[in-house]
Amino acid sequence: MEKENKRPLILVTNDDGYYAGGFKALIEIAKSFGDVVAVAPEVGNSGMSHAITIKVPIRLRLLDKTEGLALYACSGTPADCIKLAINQVLDRKPDLVLSGVNHGSNSSISLIYSGTMAGAIEGCLNGIDSVGLSLLDFARDANFQASVVYGKRIVSEVLRNGLPKGTCLNVNIPEGNVDEIKGVKVCRQNKGRWVEEFEKRTDPRGSNYFWLTGYYCNDEPESTDTDEAALNNKYVSIVPVKVDLSDYVMINTLNGWNLNESN
Amino acid sequence: MEKENKRPLILVTNDDGYYAGGFKALIEIAKSFGDVVAVAPEVGNSGMSHAITIKVPIRLRLLDKTEGLALYACSGTPADCIKLAINQVLDRKPDLVLSGVNHGSNSSISLIYSGTMAGAIEGCLNGIDSVGLSLLDFARDANFQASVVYGKRIVSEVLRNGLPKGTCLNVNIPEGNVDEIKGVKVCRQNKGRWVEEFEKRTDPRGSNYFWLTGYYCNDEPESTDTDEAALNNKYVSIVPVKVDLSDYVMINTLNGWNLNESN
Predict the structure, then answer these.
(1) Which residues on A lie below 8 Å from B55 (Cβ)?
(2) Does B111 lie at the interface with A, CB-CB under 8 angstroms?
(3) What is the pLDDT of residues B228-257, one digit of tens each?
């Protein structure tokens, strides 16, 4: 028992694959607070959302084990990584789950498509304080300096204060060095959506196929209390995210509908 | 214009594949209200959540076109199906998106893993009234009689009243015939989680692999106002689902944290 209380046990994952620069940054953040078990996808899982692997079996590969860090690659999704780590890798429930640092934003509605945030939400569902982190830079060689500085500050506060059951944090970090970032803002999720513009092509055999492309449409560009607004103003955004999606206001409205008589 | 106003245009999808019995039931529901465009996955996409296909191109195949119904198979996920239908198949924004009828429950936390509900949520993100329907029976030859009856009643009320922007409906239907079902209950999402029990096996070459298994753990078995409680008492459950996941209570708490000073 005394060993358990010495250093926090931190489970980390991501959705860009174990080799991603952002994952190395995340491990650096985590190692400064505790012992780290890292279970990340073998390959990129961007856009996999909260998918779980049920049609094929899942493989797990130990890549490295050094003082304070065990690193595994998993054939599954970020949600699978957290599930498999808790059930098969860890000998006790971790004190914290971190996911990221994603190469690219997960603000606003991107949260719903995000494999990174699925990793954090899966930790949260298992009753563990969980944080997802994303940098607004898709580049393979993106600069994670500010992510490490702000990531450490936020993780320190999470470990000190704890999070309520059923809520995790979605942290997004603007591009640039630390001195370009103005600070941290606690926000709500911006209302917006991806507008799709599929690109239609014809393959060498004459059949059509489509590539998903699109752009983000901000449905409330004038708002100042959202993650989009904070990021546009060079603040790190933190949105507390609930796993209970019930619309409590709408429950009352629906109770006034004519649902219990035939038409 | 006059043609557009004649009958509602209803876009339908599912996550079990276009050939599923539950999809035929959904088309039956939809056809009783309007013209139907059906775009569903080529193969089962259970557990795919809100995943989108970005690494490989997407294929679309017209299967059938009759009076009031066009049926397509799509190589992508349920979210892809809705995106592609809106962008490439439909000549106007549909009046309604329906997803399902899923073979198996999507109550409580299963909502987060559900490809069926991702189809409905994707419709909702595009500003379209959307409903996901699921039957508590995994069987290929499940009995969708009650799903059709209650599905029609609920869809009729959605078309009559409309849904607020950013909210869709998660409908779950108990097993059994209509006369075994007591009615409809508007509910909140039950608090619960899947407890994983991975099954470890060894392949013929001596390497280990894992199958995801597990059971549902109800974290509030005494509650009476949740979808789980309604379903256990043989009521159809309707949970209004928000796409804004912000925890507004926690925003205030986080504003009291020490996030803007270095440690």
Answers:
(1) 44
(2) yes
(3) 999 999 999 999 999 999 999 999 999 999
Which chain B residues are within 8 Å of A183, Cβ to Cβ? 259-260
Size of interface A-B (CB pairs under 8 A): 228
| Cβ pair A101, A144 in contact under 8 A | yes
| Whole-number Å distance between alpha carbons of B52 and A99 | 19
Beta-sheet strands, E only, within chain B: 9-13, 35-41, 60-66, 69-74, 96-103, 130-135, 167-173, 183-186, 192-196, 199-202, 208-211, 214-218, 235-242
SS3 B6: helix
pTM for this prediction = 0.94
Q: B208 in contact with A at a CB cutoff of 8 Å?
A: yes
Could you tell me if residue B49 is left (phi over 0), alpha (psi between -120 and 50 degrees) or otherwise beta?
left
Q: Which residues of B touch A262 (CB under 8 A)?
A: 153
Contact status of A181 with chain B (Cβ, < 8 Å):
no
In chain B, the residue whose alpha carbon lies closest to the alpha carbon of A86 is B196
The string of pLDDT tens digits covering residues A123-175 is 999 999 999 999 999 999 999 999 999 999 999 999 999 999 999 999 999 99
The single-letter DSSP state of residue B78 is H
Which chain B residue has the Cα nearest residue A48? B51
| Count of Cβ atoms closer than 10 Å to residue B224 Cβ | 11
How many C-alpha atoms does A93 have within 13 Å on its Cβ side? 9
Check if A173 contacts B (Cβ < 8 Å): no
ipTM given for this complex: 0.93
Domains by residue range for chain B, with CATH: 8-188+225-245 (3.40.1210.10)
Cβ of B125 within 8 Å of Cβ of A157? The answer is no
Q: How far apart are CA B121 and CA B77, in angstroms?
A: 13
Q: What percent of chain A has pLDDT over 70?
A: 97
